[in-house]
Design goal:
about 120 residues, mainly alpha, single chain
Length: about 120
């Protein structure tokens, strides 16, 4: 079970880097990346905007990990077969995963508020 979780999380991590590279050279969704004018380097945003994007990206990955732990704990609880030790372990994982999701959402709110306040 642990090797399956490691393989799935590794595959999800690698896939997350491949998703955003499809339109890396395009300025819009329907633009032709082979034609048009070269990209304007000065129009790529400020340092604060780029840091906000990176932080939000990692918060999204952490949210996916927390949801993965919720799913793992649910499977653990369903397959416990009445064993109190497994049920207790699953409840702890669920409690910590929900706490993690709350912290991630609060972090996202704080980052959004600070980035909008700073301009």
């Amino acid at each position: 079970m642990k090797s399956l979780i490691k393989k799935l999380s590794g595959a999800a991590f690698v896939a997350s880097f491949l998703v955003n590279q499809a339109f890396a050279q395009s300025t819009g969704f329907l633009d032709n990346p082979q034609g048009g004018t070269p990209p304007n380097v000065a129009a790529q945003g400020t340092l604060g905007a780029n840091v906000t994007i990176i932080i939000n990206y990692f918060l999204g990955i952490l949210g996916l990990v927390a949801v993965g732990f919720l799913i793992y704990a649910g499977i653990l609880m369903v397959t416990a077969g009445g064993a109190e030790e497994s049920v207790t372990k699953a409840r702890k994982i669920i409690m910590y995963a929900v706490a993690g999701i709350v912290i991630i959402l609060l972090s996202y709110t704080i980052v959004t508020f600070v980035s909008s306040a700073l301009g």
